[in-house]
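Methods — Computational structure assignment.
A single polypeptide chain was analysed. Its primary sequence is given first, followed by the predicted tertiary structure written as structure tokens.
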Amino acid sequence: MGVKLLHLALLLFLSNLFPTHSIAQGRKSSRAGQTFRDCTECPEMVVIPAGSFMMGSPENEPGRNPAEGPQRKVMIQKFAVGKFLITKKEWAIFAKETQRPMAGGCCWAELPGDSLKPWEMNSKASWNNIGFKQDSSHPVVCITWYDAIDYINWLSKLTGHTYRLLTEAEWEYAARAGTTTAYYWGDEASHNFSNYGTDTNFGDGCVQGRDRWLNTSPVGSFPPNQFGLYDMLGNVNQYLADYFKPSYINVPTDGSAYIIEARLSMGGDLSDMDGTSSCAYRMVRGSNFGDSPQTLRCAFRNWAPGPGATLRTYRSSALGFRVARAL
């Protein structure tokens, strides 16, 4: 059988295997900056070049905290990253095709008559019923870390490619996009470049400049960074693959995830984590629509879940994800 006939046979096989999706065709290279989709409903991906960068923040950066150090050089291999956060539309397709039940329970929801504290779980809230206005182009939120993993596993099976969450090092490398400033657009926070909150009150959205949303905004509403990625800072926090680590001491420098199970020794404001395991948490990055300029910085580190929740139960209206893909 000739090469062309073999190619045709393969395409027919794929179309029968995935009848509701069109598999991407004719892509033979993965140049830095190239964009692609592996199927018509798959997330649009951007090829990120290999390189190295200084991860963390310098000691003189305003707003810095000790968790952002010590700075160290990290090597990153070429990979692909979602151009946008995973949207409600993309999540709805996954939920429909996998017949996924609508799970309730979400903090920082704004349902009418809600008398709970913002950080308490509202059992009636879900990814499709948060209490503030969203359309299909907004990032999906109110999902657990394991929900995100289920989506990634489905996407990998659908396309035959290895999708995953970003590592913390990959995320900061992709967010900085070759820059060394506090934000990828400069050293000053600006609502013309990102959807974030006020300078003073934690959890309060802010309408100013290009930022017209108190809550989530449609993906791609602000200028991209130099790698062509949107909403790397602001809009919603993003789940990552790494276990919790309170500093960069003994963390990999090859771009891989920190996945060492360790008993945590914590005090002060984090005393509720004392004695728990590092694998009970995952790092999150990117800040969100109600966060301050300090937490919006490329180097700022955060984690989930919050107190009293687990990775299988914790959902927040300010926490979503984007995907990565091996090349």
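Note: Helices lie at 3-17, 88-97, 145-159, 168-176, 293-296.
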